[in-house]
């Protein structure tokens, strides 16, 4: 992947730096440690989701189930935490593996429906996303589940070097994601399928198994995102995952993950998430009126994609 | 996709003040006295009338509470709650209208219906359909400003809506008092084009006229969303820092996000006000984490809307003999503050109050005004 070390490879990082310099020039407060911590808090759950969908995009597929998956696992986590005593310091910790397992199973089911029943991932994952939101509405009755566990919430409130614990946790799972991408058979198979599925199949890559595993991995990361959302907000409901579909796919693409597959990786997702989080934070910090923010975000996203995606090897876009 | 859902929920609360139509509004206050009012009078019970509530969906706490009011009314007639027919339009005006037509056809016109028409223009065809079939109708939230019950006749009994401006101003005054009458305030608003978002911001601005030392630092939209509100609030802290002395939120959900964004910074004593009076928000008021929220009593609104249609149908009162203030009126709003939050929760949330549905306008907050 890194064989053509031209400027395009570093463009996402350059875009990110340019944005930081731009916002700092307009309001020096932007470049304070406290503000970076605020951006990091906003970005942490969102990064988990973007890493999850990056695995699927590398494979040349798409996953639109994240809003349902994040909401569902966040609500399951809250219910399980309350059911098992209300604190992760005692038996409540069991809510963590329960939520992660539910996320992975949900993802695996999503992948199975897509790969076994030969339904395009766009359609199957969108449908599964709706199923997830529907299940969340059923579980909550349209209401909110709140948790009051100060130990779990210390992910937000306890800081090391100015950054809350959740940022370090997100950093750890970022490293896990990089490891899976670079050092495991699954990671290599994802690129093989994304590059040319026929060739991968002919070379003996187990397509069905890889696809299901990839979606399960994505689901695992969505569950992580869901739990970090709960850490951030202290509550879960059927709209906990709202907006994450657009934001996470945008972030992956802005960071340099190409929607046609096999280009980019987890690091690109990180930079993309930071670009989007910096834009969102910066627009408020420099005092942009709210009614033009959506428009500015859209324009900046297009510019960022033009600058940061390596399109030289692409012969057609679909 | 979920932003969509939020927007929808708020959007269907809108359009009372479609400014374009305001000046065109007919003001024939004298109305048409009972031309179509053909309902035979029955004593007590449902009097052979079928009852229905037509609304958007069952997935939102708001609509569930509205419907619970309708069911309470049906229950008060000695019928089973399941005797109230749920006509769920799923956000489609066409389905809203066709459901009502089917319901009236099935009951030979003897239907008493409460309805949110889904969007404002749909209220007129719904009202005319019900009139032509001989049924009785009350509407809530959505209708155009030029449509009035008294122009349609006795079959269009009443329209009920809620104003955001005054209660929002009341919340703002409580906020300013908690700030000591001075300092910077930020407003976290809904989707900018939504009427409730506009009204609630206007309420804040109106209240500011009485507090010259309060400065509105910034207005930022968070699309009614908890997550976005948390992010917007933390960005505002970067911009304004300690100058922010109070936060005025256009709904409860966004206030939850604001509270958490401040908690992340170790700020727990900032006065924050919200709107909607959800159970979680009331709990936060009791805990002292939220200064105030506004409750609009959707249970009563849902019950009285159906009750008015049905009572007019059985001849318990004649709509055209009532003043206009009884046919287009605002629902109640209650400011929930720390001093009364526990009492409020006991009365309205832990138990549902039993209402005398024949006290038809007891909780009305006055005739709807068009500006």
Question: What does it look like?
Answer:
The complex is a heterodimer of chains A (about 325) and B (about 375). Chain A is mostly helical and about 325 residues long. In chain A, about 70% of the residues lie in helices and about 5% in strands. Chain A has a single domain, classed as Orthogonal Bundle (ABC transporter involved in vitamin B12 uptake, BtuC), CATH 1.10.3470. In chain A, a hairpin with a 2-residue loop joins strand 2 and strand 3. In chain A, helix 3 (about 65-85) packs parallel to helix 5 (about 120-140). The two termini of chain A are about 20 Å apart. The model of chain A has no long low-confidence stretch (mean pLDDT about 90). Helix content of chain B is about 40%, strand content about 15%. The longest helix of chain B has 16 residues, at about 60-75. The two termini of chain B are about 35 Å apart.
């Amino acid at each position: 992947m890194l064989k053509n070390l031209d400027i395009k490879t570093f463009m996402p990082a350059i875009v990110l730096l340019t944005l930081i310099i731009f916002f700092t020039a307009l309001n020096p407060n932007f470049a304070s440690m406290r503000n970076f911590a605020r951006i990091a808090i906003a970005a942490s759950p969102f990064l988990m989701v973007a890493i999850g969908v990056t695995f699927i995009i590398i494979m040349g597929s798409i996953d639109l189930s994240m809003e349902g998956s994040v909401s569902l696992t966040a609500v399951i986590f809250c219910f399980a935490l309350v059911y098992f005593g209300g604190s992760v310091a005692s038996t409540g910790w069991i809510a963590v593996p329960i939520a992660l397992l539910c996320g992975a199973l949900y993802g695996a089911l999503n992948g199975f429906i897509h790969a076994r029943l030969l339904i395009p991932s766009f359609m199957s994952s969108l449908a599964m996303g709706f199923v997830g939101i529907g299940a969340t509405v059923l579980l909550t009755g349209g209401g909110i589940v709140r948790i009051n566990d100060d130990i779990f919430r210390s992910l937000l409130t306890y800081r090391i070097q100015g950054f809350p614990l959740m940022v370090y946790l997100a950093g750890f799972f970022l490293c896990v994601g990089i490891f899976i991408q670079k050092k495991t058979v699954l990671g290599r198979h994802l690129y093989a399928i994304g590059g040319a599925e026929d060739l991968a199949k002919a070379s003996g890559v187990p397509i069905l198994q890889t696809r299901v595993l990839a979606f399960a991995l994505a689901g695992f990361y969505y569950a992580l995102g869901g739990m970090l959302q709960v850490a951030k907000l202290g509550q879960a409901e059927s709209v906990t995952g709202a907006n994450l579909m657009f934001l996470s796919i945008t972030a992956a693409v802005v960071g340099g993950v190409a929607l046609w597959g096999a280009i980019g990786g987890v690091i690109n997702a990180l930079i993309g998430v930071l670009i989007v989080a910096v834009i969102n934070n910066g627009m408020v910090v420099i005092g942009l009126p709210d009614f033009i923010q959506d428009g500015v975000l859209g324009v900046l996203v297009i510019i960022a994609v033009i600058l940061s995606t390596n399109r030289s090897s692409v012969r057609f876009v679909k | 996709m979920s932003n969509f859902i939020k927007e929808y929920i708020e959007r269907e609360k809108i359009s009372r003040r479609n400014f374009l139509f305001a000046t065109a509004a007919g003001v024939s206050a004298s109305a048409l006295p009972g031309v179509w009012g053909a309902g035979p009078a029955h004593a007590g019970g449902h009097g052979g009338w079928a009852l229905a509530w037509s609304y958007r969906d069952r997935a939102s706490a708001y609509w569930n509470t509205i419907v619970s009011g309708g069911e309470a009314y049906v229950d008060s007639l000695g019928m089973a709650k399941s005797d109230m027919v749920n006509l769920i339009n799923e956000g489609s005006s066409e389905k809203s209208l066709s459901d009502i037509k089917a319901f009236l056809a099935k009951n030979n016109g003897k239907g008493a219906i409460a309805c949110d028409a889904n969007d404002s223009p749909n209220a007129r065809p719904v009202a005319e359909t019900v009139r032509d079939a001989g049924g009785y109708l009350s509407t809530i939230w959505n209708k155009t400003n030029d449509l009035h019950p008294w122009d349609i006749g006795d079959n269009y009994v009443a329209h009920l809506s809620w104003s955001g401006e005054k209660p929002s101003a009341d919340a703002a005054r409580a906020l300013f008092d908690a700030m000591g009458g001075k300092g910077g305030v930020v407003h976290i608003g809904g989707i900018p084009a939504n009427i409730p978002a506009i009204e609630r911001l206007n309420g804040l601005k109106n209240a500011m006229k009485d507090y010259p030392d309060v400065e509105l630092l910034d207005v930022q939209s968070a699309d009614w969303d908890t997550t976005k509100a948390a992010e917007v609030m933390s960005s505002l802290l970067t911009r304004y820092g300690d100058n922010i002395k109070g936060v005025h939120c256009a709904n409860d959900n966004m206030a939850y996000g604001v509270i958490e964004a401040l908690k992340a910074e170790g700020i727990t004593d900032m006065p924050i006000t919200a709107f909607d009076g959800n159970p979680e928000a009331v709990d936060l008021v009791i805990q002292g984490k939220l200064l105030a929220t506004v409750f609009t009593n959707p249970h009563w609104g849902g019950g009285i809307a159906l009750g008015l249609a049905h009572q007019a149908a059985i001849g318990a009162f004649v709509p055209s003999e009532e003043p206009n203030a009884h046919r287009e009126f605002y629902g109640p709003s209650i400011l929930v503050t720390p001093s009364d939050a526990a009492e409020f929760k006991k009365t309205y949330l832990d138990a549902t109050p039993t209402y005398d549905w024949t006290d038809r306008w007891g909780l009305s907050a006055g005739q709807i005004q068009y500006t």
